[in-house]
Every structure is written in C-alpha cells, then in structure tokens.
Design brief:
This is Glycosyltransferase involved in cell wall biosynthesis. The chain has 14 helices and 14 strands. With about 375 residues, it is α/β, with parallel strands linked by helices. The chain folds into 2 domains: about 220 residues, 3-Layer(aba) Sandwich (Rossmann fold); about 140 residues, Rossmann fold (3-Layer(aba) Sandwich), CATH 3.40.50.2000. It has a 6-stranded parallel beta sheet with strand order 2-1-5-6-7-8, with helices on both faces. Strands 11-10-9-12-13-14 form a 6-stranded parallel beta sheet, sandwiched between helices. The chain is globular.
C-alpha cells in the first residue's frame, strides 16, 4: 500500500510520539509499503508557544494540498483489497495481492494535521487519526484552560475520522467519557534490538540512582519526583519549558539535558529505578524503554502506567510515589525484562496496518460538517 502519514511531530523533536512514528515508518517500509511523509521540516516554521524546542508549520494549507493531490495523482485507482470487519485491511501481513491501495493517517492535531483533515473533508476521502498526547490536560496545566474545552475541540477534530487509534485501554475509557467515537485500540511497542541491558553501565553517582527521562514540562508532574525524599541520587534527562525553573529550585538533582537515542540504553541500565511521576499520559513509552533495559519502574496507578505495567511485577504502582520507588528497588532485572518483551514492535506495526482504511470516497463515513465555507 501507499501510506500518506501527516504529523506535526518529527525530528529533530525528541519525544515519545516521534519515536513511535519513526518506528512505525521503518516497520511499514520494511514490509515493502510506500510511506509518504508530510512533516514540519518541509515547511516554513515557527516555535510552538510555550515549547520553543518544538517548531510548527506556518500556514501550511497550500503545500499540504499540493502534496496530497500529488500523492493521489501518482496512485491511480486500482481494485480494492477486501477489508476486515473492523474496517481495516483483511491482510495483516502486508500482502495486498499486488495492488497498491492508498491510506491517509493523520497522527497529530497541529497545523499539518488540521490542513490534512481539511483536504480529506473537501475531497471526500476517508482517513484515520491517532490520539497520542493529552493536550487538553497540558493546556489546563500550562494556560489554565478548562479540560472540558480542550476535549470538546479535540473531539470535534477527530469526529470525521474512520478510526481514532488510542494506545491504552485507560486512554480509551477517558476519551469515551468525553464523547469520542470510532475509537480503535492500537498498542505501542519498544525497539528490543536497541533497548536491552548494558552490562557494567554506570552514571558515576552515589546510589541508589533514581532516573527520569522525558520532557521537563507542565504535564509531566515532575515536581512530584523532585520533591521525593529518597536516598542516593536523582537524575533527569530531558529539556522543556520548566527546565531552568526546576534547576534553580533543585540544584541537588543531576540535570543531564538531551542525549542521542543510542546512549539511552546505557543510561537506563545504570539506574536502579525509573521513576515516572506523570498522571496525564496516553502511554508512556519511556517506561517500556527502561523495562527493556532491566530497570524497574515506579509510577502512579493511572492510565498509561496501568497499561504498561498491568498486573506484571516489572514495576510498582502506588498512590504514594515514594513508597513505589523504594519498593521497586527490590525488583529484579529479569522481571522488568519479561514485561518489556510483551511489547514487540512487529506485532504493533501489523496491528496498525489492520486499522487503516482505504482513502477512497466509497469508504467515507464523515460526520455532518460543512466544508464549503472553507474552500
């Protein structure tokens, strides 16, 4: 097939969404599928307000329209491949009988995702979307915008989608509560070739070593980790809008910034416990990366950690984060590894393929939305 993937999150951004999409694209191409990417580096950009390290496409409509037009002009109509009862392709192995079908997947709700959505509605084309980030929670934390307003807007954005992919059952329940429809479960995975234990890894700090990797931003609830009374050393890898504030307030914490992805297995392996304080995750990929390196996880029992750790003994979930962290010290690397190996990327890519829908007009089931005024 040809997949047209539209995303506002791509390199050089460093976050779980980018990691997930890069792995997905690699997996699709490894199966022989063509992937057409529409991402920010192809456009004029501006810094995202409040997150200057993230650049957003500026006035992208004209170029997005041209790129989508070209993608379809280069893929003349061919016989349709049978679809499974769930709406995706019946074949989950990637064999489409020699015919190239086109699918559109809008991964994010930013300027590029909005422009692609507009094109699909104007041209009566079916598409799928994904809910990767709990932006309503971020907007509430950073700008004090009521969560209900944010979820109303995102529900409207995703309403025309033929399938809204969500990574966890906990997130699915949250979106259902806010009135989202057409939700489809699409789990995430971890690169088990890259993320594995590194023997003898050390950060040269007094132990035990408590690690956090991720954005230093409003929605991550990092203050809860920083305030914990724990022996040994706390280490934070990541950047974000709150970095300088937290560095001033917590000089005893070891702030290490951003490192190449290839260095992360050594860092995870050198820690005694990975502490994940966020209460507003859609998934929490860094937890899987830590587990795959044999490092147990301590987190709150909320959506994201509940799904990643489940009922396994690869980590500890507790409403008292300090108690969870201290208990996680007693978990063996083998138990953490066993949980991570349940999230292999090969199955994740096949599941994604099965959830895509052909972008032909006959498959469109959009909600009632007037697009004439936008032409």
């Amino acid at each position: 097939m040809k997949l047209v993937l539209i995303t506002d999150a791509w390199g050089p951004q460093v976050n779980g969404v980018v990691t997930t999409l890069v792995e997905l694209v690699d997996g699709m191409r490894a199966r022989g599928h063509e992937v057409v990417l529409i991402e920010p580096s192809q456009f004029r950009r501006m810094p995202c307000p409040g997150y200057r390290e993230i650049e957003l496409a500026l006035r992208p409509w004209g170029k997005v329209k041209a790129m989508l037009d070209e993608a379809f002009e280069a893929s003349p109509g061919r016989p349709k491949t049978p679809r499974s009862p769930s709406g995706g392709w019946a074949s989950r192995s990637g064999d489409l009988g020699g015919h190239q079908e086109v699918a559109i997947h809008i991964a994010t709700e930013g300027p590029l995702g909005t422009a692609a959505r507009r094109w699909c509605l104007k041209n009566n084309r079916a598409f799928t979307t994904a809910f990767h980030t709990r932006f309503p929670d971020i907007l509430s934390s950073a700008l004090h915008i009521p969560e209900s307003w944010g979820y109303w807007w995102f529900k409207r954005f995703h309403a025309p989608s033929s399938g809204v992919m969500v990574p966890t059952e906990g997130m699915r329940q949250i979106l259902q509560h806010h009135g989202f429809t057409n939700l489809r479960s699409w789990s995430h995975g971890v690169d088990l070739e890259l993320f594995k234990p590194v023997a003898g890894a050390s950060l040269d700090l007094p132990g035990p070593v408590w690690l956090y990797v991720g954005r230093v931003s409003y929605e991550k609830n990092l203050q809860a980790f920083l305030n914990l009374d724990l022996p040994g050393s706390k280490v934070v890898y990541g950047v974000g809008p709150l970095l300088e504030k937290f560095r001033r307030e917590h000089p005893q914490v070891h702030w290490r910034g951003v490192v190449p992805r290839s260095e992360l297995p050594r860092i995870y392996s050198a820690a005694d416990v990975f502490v994940f304080p966020s209460r507003s995750e859609t998934f929490g990929l860094v937890m899987l990366e830590a587990l795959a390196c044999g490092t147990p996880v301590a987190a709150y029992p909320v959506a994201g950690p509940l799904d990643v750790l489940g009922e396994s003994d690869g980590g500890v979930l507790d409403a008292d984060l300090r108690r969870a962290a201290l208990a996680a010290l007693h978990i063996t690397p083998e138990r953490a590894l066993a949980r991570a190996h349940q999230f292999d990327w090969h199955a994740v890519v096949n599941q994604f393929i099965g959830l895509l829908v052909p972008a032909g007009p006959a498959a469109v089931t959009h909600c009632h939305e007037t697009v004439a005024s936008r032409s």
